[in-house]
Design goal:
mainly alpha, globular, about 300 residues, 3-stranded mixed β-sheet
Length: about 300
């Protein structure tokens, strides 16, 4: 590695060259990241402490919220600290580590959303067999497979990038280490590598997105036989899932399902799937789910009573 990597650190250009804009962004992103951690932690805590949220759906929701915290934490703290720094630098090893965990948690979220869609399919299309099919052992295995899938996906991505020679320049026109900006800095032909990255990242996103949409289409068609009340509750739950799927997969497909070129809008799109989507997930799931709102209210009441003692 020492023979092929003359570059020992990378410099981020960040979101804006303006110092005033960077200070404004510092306040905004600090508040957003705090809201991401608090909002998703609240969902995890609510599910863990509420008996009424004991079904697999809420177990998967708490896992998704935990992944969202981890996913956003791979980029947001560095982004926030760099907004006040004169030199926005990251070491070569730090860059590779950040790249690995971005795709690890991102891949895990893709597989976890697929698991959640399967759970809704079984609950709505096979309600009599739901408790048998989605027992806790199966749920634990599915979540474990989602983490393993994320690890394998990320490992494949990092192995593609790791052997590339970086001889200089070392300036990344982004606010975190990602595949396409790094390909531009490599001192070798990366055309084939770019195709392999598209095959791994972009194809995974598209196939998962199509499978998810198809599963929800099947669910919606099945709902025609339900009563109006049952249809309303199922649509509310599935509506939240579909919204999250579109918010997450849309930007990912835009970034990773194209040749190894970078666009000026890439940083804004990246902000959407690394900051905005993790922020919106707890809002979407809590506001559209009466059981979650009731459980949060009960948790708040218990907390207040403990403080009064």
């Amino acid at each position: 590695m020492a023979n092929t990597h003359n570059v020992t650190e990378f410099i981020f250009l960040g979101l804006s060259p303006s110092r005033e804009m960077q200070r404004v962004c510092f306040v905004i992103f600090l508040l957003l990241y705090t809201a991401i951690v608090l909002g998703n932690s609240l969902i995890v805590l609510t599910v863990m402490t509420s008996r009424s949220l004991g079904s697999p759906m809420y177990f998967f929701l708490s896992c998704l919220s935990f992944v969202e915290i981890c996913y956003s934490s791979t980029t947001s703290p560095k982004l926030i600290s760099d907004l006040l720094a004169e030199k926005k630098a990251i070491s070569l090893w730090g860059c590779m580590t950040q790249l690995f965990f971005i795709h690890f948690f991102g891949g895990t979220e893709i597989f976890l959303l697929t698991v959640m869609a399967y759970d809704r399919y079984v609950a709505i299309c096979k309600p009599l067999n739901y408790t048998t099919i989605m027992n806790w052992q199966v749920c634990a295995v599915l979540v474990g497979l989602a983490w393993v899938g994320g690890f394998v996906h990320s490992l494949a991505q990092i192995l593609l990038i790791f052997h590339l020679p970086f001889c200089g320049p070392n300036v990344i026109n982004h606010y975190f280490c990602d595949l396409l900006p790094l390909l531009k800095l490599a001192c070798s032909d990366t055309f084939l590598l770019g195709l392999l990255i598209v095959a791994n990242g972009g194809t995974l996103s598209v196939i998962s997105f199509v499978v998810l949409l198809a599963s929800y289409v099947v669910i919606l068609l099945h709902l025609r036989t339900r009563s109006s009340e049952g249809r309303r509750k199922a649509l509310s739950t599935c509506g939240s899932h579909i919204t999250v799927v579109i918010l997450f997969f849309g930007p990912c497909i835009f970034i990773y399902l194209r040749p190894s070129t970078t666009l000026s809008v890439d940083k804004l799109v990246a902000v959407f799937y690394t900051v905005i989507t993790p922020l919106l997930n707890p809002v979407i799931y809590s506001l559209r789910n009466a059981e979650v709102k009731k459980a949060m209210k009960r948790l708040w009441i218990r907390t207040v009573k403990l403080d009064e003692r």
